[in-house]
Amino acid sequence: MSSSSKSQDLGSLLSDSALFRTQGYINGQWVSASDGVTFPLTNPATGALIADMPHMPRSQVAEAIDAAKTALPAWAALTAYQRSAYLLKLHSLMEQHAQDLGTILCVENGKPLAEAKGEIAYGASFMQWNAAEGLRTYGQTIPSPFPGTRNMVIKQPIGVCGLITPWNFPNAMITRKMAPALAAGCTVVIKAPAETPLSALAMAVLCERIGVPAGVVNVVVMDKGDREAAAGLELCENIKVSKISFTGSTPVGRLLMKQGSSTLKKLSFELGGNAAFIIFDDADLELAVTGVIASKFRAAGQTCVCANRIFVHSKIYDQFAKLLAEKVGAFKVGDGMTEGVTIGPLVNSRGVEKVERHVKDAVSKGAKVLVGGEKIDNGDGSCFFQPTVLVDVPRECAVAEEETFGPLAPLFKFDDEEDVITRANSSEVGLAGYLFTRDLARSNRVAEKLEVGMVGVNTGVIAQACIPFGGVKQSGFGREGGPSGINEFQVDKLITIGGM
After folding, report:
1. Known Gene3D superfamilies for this protein (predicted)?
2. Which of 85, 291, 371, 432 could join 305 via S-S bond, C-beta 3.0 to 4.6 A?
3. Which residue out of 228, 270, 403, 488 is catalytically annotated?
4. pTM to 2 decimals?
5. Is the pLDDT of residue 328 over 60?
């Protein structure tokens, strides 16, 4: 149980309080932990207890896998049009309940309500996209060199899929995985993040309401620690699971890859980022500032594709820094449910400590704070850090090497195109990169040289349901979204017919 001295009645904030569930969902049933163990879920903006959540053991993860395996044949046997209809119903319900889904997300994650509702719209778009994409999983015929022989290739669902999702986008990271899996004919076991399980459970409510058969969608919940590790191990080692889709840190991705090797799971990983954001001397500065704010400060900087290293040409460095500091200094920090708040809390105290460490390290090596630079201690267990801009950041410091995952914008100075490309590519990860320039040739040249899976040119926003989202190097492999997203949940089967 929680030691928090205060609690929050989340249900009272909802028009439909039934969307607020505090049990896991296995085989169409709402279940507590089999041994009755719970863990406290708190609001990162207030420190208040939201609910005591089930701390499920590994045996219940195995139960969920069994349920998904049992449900698989009937779900896979549905036509693509029938599965598409389910996804369109989910899309409709997500739009209908956007306010409530956004409120749940805001309270458990901390991001401002307007931003949370934007995520719900983004999450719903994956339902709509994959409802259509599931109808276009075409096979092919391949001419044979042998007379009287025909070759056909058909697409089939890979099977039971373990979906391990992060807390920073509690709705969209689930829908981005679940929608193509269901459209392909797979069944799923979702391991909800300990920090934000309520959004996953709310989606299970919607699945139940539209009549998704029992066992097709399952949600297991547990706190950080041994049971979370055991859940990942069960998903990786259980022979009934054919596919793991994971979004999270690179170290955890490495661990899951080792664990999945024993059963040769198909894997798709979207791992850590350390995005370079390059602003050349011919850039539209107002547009570049807007791009940095959109990329860096969305979700209080807790996104895998946010600008982590901001390289600004020396000719415009001071002007750009001043413009950015003015905008960031006007942010309103607070509880995301409060009108006008633009920056919410970090999800936990560990996030605050990391941002504080990066700021202190950079300042100790010569960087200067233009705005922010301090954690906000309200004495109530909340997790706020001031939106921060650093200038004169040296090449060698922690923020140049590590993903901050917080509202810290470090500005590095550069003069030469080739040098800044080399610096941008020096990271072991390669998820996203950004560049701002009016030079068409340069935009293409630099975009092609950046060692990342995605590049934004003159924009700080790249995520959409219709694009292939993913990285290179140690940012993982596989793609989510776009025409290739559903392929991650399918296998090609060859049928060769002779004697014709």
Report:
1. Aldehyde Dehydrogenase, Chain A, domain 1 (3.40.605.10), Aldehyde Dehydrogenase, Chain A, domain 2 (3.40.309.10)
2. 432
3. 270
4. 0.96
5. yes
Number of Cβ within a 10 Å radius of residue 451: 17
The vertex-156 CA angle with 154 and 157, nearest 5°, equals 165
pLDDT digits (tens, 9 = 90+) for 71-93: 999 999 999 999 999 999 999 99
Read off the tokens for 17.
Answer: 């309080």
Extract the tokens encoding 166. 């992060």
| 270 included as an active-site residue | yes
What's residue 1's pLDDT? Answer: 37
Q: Are 205 and 19 in contact (CB under 8 A)?
A: yes
- Triad 458, 461, 465: Cα angle to 5°: 130
pLDDT of residue 379: 84
- The position carrying tokens 């689930």 is 174
Q: What is the 3-state secondary structure (H, E, C) of the chain?
A: CCCCCCECCHHHHCCCHHHCCCCEEECCEEECCCCCCEEEEECCCCCCEEEEEECCCHHHHHHHHHHHHHHHHHHHHCCHHHHHHHHHHHHHHHHHCHHHHHHHHHHHHCCCHHHHHHHHHHHHHHHHHHHHHHHHCCCEEECCCCCCCEEEEEEEECCEEEEECCCCCCCHHHHHHHHHHHHHCCEEEEECCCCCHHHHHHHHHHHHHCCCCCCCEEEECCCCCHHHHHHHHHHHHCCCEEEEEEECCHHHHHHHHHHHHHHCCEEEEECCCCEEEEECCCCCHHHHHHHHHHHHCHHHHCCCCCEEEEEEECCCHHHHHHHHHHHHHCCCECCCCCCCCCECCCCCHHHHHHHHHHHHHHHHCCCEEEECCCEECCCCCCCEECCEEEECCCCCCHHHHCCCCCCEEEEEEECCHHHHHHHHCCCCEECEEEEECCCHHHHHHHHHHCCCCEEEECCCCCCCCCCCECCEECCEECCECHHHHHHHHEEEEEEEECCC
Question: With contact defined as beta carbons under 8 Å apart, do 109 and 193 qualify?
Answer: no
Encoding tokens for residue 423? 């610096």
* Separation CA 298–CA 301 (nearest Å): 6
User: In terms of Cα–Cα distance, which of 192, 204, 202 is closest to 61?
Assistant: 192
What is the C-alpha to C-alpha distance for residues 112 and 154, in angstroms, rounded to an integer?
45
pLDDT tens per residue across span 105-140: 999 999 999 999 999 999 999 999 999 999 999 999
212-248 pLDDT, tens digit each: 999 999 999 999 999 999 999 999 999 999 999 999 9
Per-residue pLDDT tens for 156-188? 999 999 999 999 999 999 999 999 999 999 999
